[in-house]
Fold this sequence. Notes:
The chain is mainly α and about 60 residues long.
Amino acid sequence: xxxxxxxxxxxxxxxxxxxxxxxTTTFESASTKAILMTVMAVLAVFMGxxxxxxxxxxxx
Length: 60
């Protein structure tokens, strides 16, 4: 499946923004906050890797 660089950039930016919003919001459960932050961080890192490797493959 081919993912464009623009889509990877957009998802990575949204994940980072949501990560900041979750970090600054008070939750009743610390574990829920930690789980959500972990999922968003993994998504942001994954999209960064997809963008890097996808951009590298398109130039060759």
